[in-house]
Specification:
The structure holds 2 protein chains of 2 kinds. By secondary structure, chain A is α+β, with helices and mostly antiparallel strands. Chain A folds into 5 domains: 63 residues, no CATH class; 188 residues, no CATH class; 207 residues, no CATH class; 170 residues, no CATH class; 210 residues, no CATH class. Chain A is built from 27 helices and 24 strands. Chain B has one domain: Winged helix-like DNA-binding domain superfamily/Winged helix DNA-binding domain (Arc Repressor Mutant, subunit A, Orthogonal Bundle), CATH 1.10.10. Classes of the chains: A alpha+beta, B alpha+beta.
Amino acid sequence: MSWWQRLFRRKTMEERLEKELRYHLERHEAELIERGVDPGEAKRQARLAIGGLEQVKEKCRDARGTLWVEDLAQDVRYALRVLRKNPGFTTVALVTIAAGIGATTVMFMLVNGVLLKPLPYAQPDTLVRLEEKTDWSNQYGNLWAFSYSNYLDCKHESRTLDLAAWRYSGGTVTLDGGAEYVDGFEISSDLFSVLGVPIFRGRTFLPEEDRLGAMPVAIISYGLWQRRFTGSTAALGRPLRLDGKSYTIVGITNPGFRLNQDEGDVFTVLGQDASPSMRMRDRHPGIQVVARLRPGATLTNAQAELGMVARHLAAEYPQSNKGRNFPAAPLRPDVGEARATLWLLFGAVSLVLLIACANVASLLLARAVSREREVAMRAALGASRGRLVRQWLTESAVLGVAGGTLGTLCAIVGVHPFIAMWPGNLPRADEVRLDWRVLTFAIAVSLFTGILFGLAPGMRAPARELDQMLREGGRAVTGRSRVQSTFVVSEISIAVVLLVAAGMLGRTVLWLSSLDPGVRTENLLVTRMALSPGVVTDPPKTRMAWREVLDSARSVPGVESVALVDTVPMREGNNQVGYWSNPALPPASEMPLALATSVTPDYLKVMGIPLLKGRFFNDSDRLGTEPVLVIDEVLAQRTFGAEDPVGKHLWLAGNSSPFSSGSDVADVAQIIGVVGHVRYWGLARDDQAQVRAEFYYPFAQVADPLLRRWSELMSMAVRTSVAPLSVVQSLQYGVRGATADQVLYEVRTMDQLASESVAQQRFLLLLFGIFAGLALLLACVGIYGVLAYLMGQRVPEIGVRMALGATPASIHRMVLRQSLGMVFAGVGVGLLLAFVSARVLVDSVNGMRPLDSLTLAMVTMLLSAAALAASFVPARRASRVDPMTALRRE
Amino acid sequence: MSEKSDLPQGTLDLLILKTVALGPVHGYAIAQRLQQVSCDVLQVPQGSLYPALHRLENRGFLAADWQESETGREAKFYRLTKKGRAQLETEAASWERLAQAVGLILRMSEGE
């Protein structure tokens, strides 16, 4: 009979087995009666001769070969019945598991989507990224953006790689519907084919278009196409005005196409970029280089080959390329701070899940003990030990799978609201979705947790002798309390770890928000601004245009004062310039760096930065007068110590000075004032930042050749008397210019920027707070459950004690002592673990305060108090045991 | 009551195969016959008899069908399969060898 026949003819099989054995018994009985045995006695003897009928049956079933499907189905049915019979226990266990697995699955979905998934390009494992690396390093390090010329040489020489390049760009798009600033990319013609990404409509760039003077063509994003062309294919072939220049639209990208996690709306051809610096091997704007390994080539081949090309170029262009190599590394998504945050949160939820498991395990264990009679009964009815263990495991696996399913469903629903909560933009958020990895993870975790918390009771179920169990009537013997205490101790120690982490984060956030950012953040609007493409080519016109912008912005109702600034504190982007305090300059690589900010005279007033000494800029500091600087207190302290810096001079490294016109000679500028330090890097990061010194220089003194670049970067800072965002519309209208093509973009308030600079810490605090609270709650439930159970078991013992003269108070103390023992053990282990986790936290979160004794003391106190509160009810109950009742239970 | 088998490990299977080899027979008859033939020397553990029968059936050494028994009731009759006969021969042979060897050792005179 094949196994499926057996599976479906189970009933017949059972009937036949029954019939066969009954036949035996009846024959034996008949024979005994024939020999003159009394019929009743004959029946008894026949049964005794065969042994336990049910046991024989079970052995016969086993002998036929265990049918795991059959057993499993039976076990599952039985488990479901048991669980249904205990709705209270089942609900608590299910909710605990579902919460644990749900939270873990949400975090895993994020980790999977953001960190683990390969980039959404074809065969991402053969894509590499190239960098320039020098065998020397200066204050900026030794890694450099690629120069376009080096890229062209590598591309030409390489036999192992297909290279492509891109760089960030952007500009003002003018279409019928008005002007709009868009982000964009300049890309090499083969970028799409190297990445293996198809284009949505139209075509990609042609190799012959990838050179100077070729016909200007552009590819636009799916988003821009929908927004400005309502998705009409007529867009192909239409002209697109970008920064005043006309391009023909030849293609539309797939929706969601990203380079380095960033979306762009307009793609132009890199080879058509006419700026002279583009072709230089040093002081170039820099490009990103990606490459695809050709079939058969390995990364090692490619690196060796690039090394050869580099030596070649070093010999040919020693000035720029000496000691310069082009290392290649696999192309991986760069997600910045999100990596640390995600792993931290994933670690934290895993701890919560462990606590949840321990809790359910101790619940199950308690139940296992109270179900000993049932187990004994089943053993008596012929269940083997293996079968009983299997039954326990099935029961907990059913719980695990049910809880896991529930949790996974919650995770699928909850992950998107959770992403919306993420501070700022979670990189690669659109990659976060349910896939086979997430499913595998959820199933594995459900089964693993099920088995984890089923193992403890399962292991001990058959450990005791059957007859002893039956005789005892399921009363306690010592030994199991140790297992239960272990659960409680581990729950408490994990709770300590999470509480300490939450405490540290809380102190950090408190400390960060007590810091002075150095500017008055309220009622302050900062926005980037693009001048009319028509004026930026001509320096005098540019200066004039900026003056007009300032004037018209000032007249907008609600605006108090306005200034221009190139790099805004706490926003992305900065300009680092080397400086020295006397003319005997060291080599450029040894000069200290300062954050240089180009501003107009009202900047101090707009930002609310205090003037400490001297004066700030005014309208007489302009091109042609002596270059002037205002330094912050950090630079003053570092360079001049106690001396008064006003009137002294600073020498600025020629290659980065805003006053120079491109020569390598250092520029000298006079210090005319000292102002307060601004936390440029944000509240959390400024203290540890490498470059903290700051100086300001007048935008009016920026050299003509640099003016266009500076103008492209300029932002406006606006101090308002009303809510800052309420003036945006009238401000935009006011500064639109004569040709109505000047636009504001990246409009933010300073309050937003300041709070974003500590958003990661706040977010972590919020979640760790929730996790720690959950952990504390679960640990307390665990303590309560275990104590209540242990006390229940010890009622007879307590009865004896009280009969022998113990007072309720002493019983009370005894119980609390037991609980305190577990609490102290848990806190002790937890504190050790907390030291380790504190290290991890300090290393991975900016501005993190170190572990302090106050946090430790508070956590210890909180936990002990909560634990004692949880043990109070069982203790009280124990102290009220009536000795007579207790003893009668014996 | 002592149900412990005095049969050496694995002997029960051999005895069952041999008994069944004589012709189709049901479980109770096997138990009876074993006891009678061995002149009540062997205590056949009835509790182990049926699991052994089912095991042998499962391994294909025995086949079974339901027939009318001598009392007129339907009973499960076992018979030896081809595979079972081969198994019986090998097991019987190995038992002979074992018995001979044990006998030789027991017959050793103590002086040697």
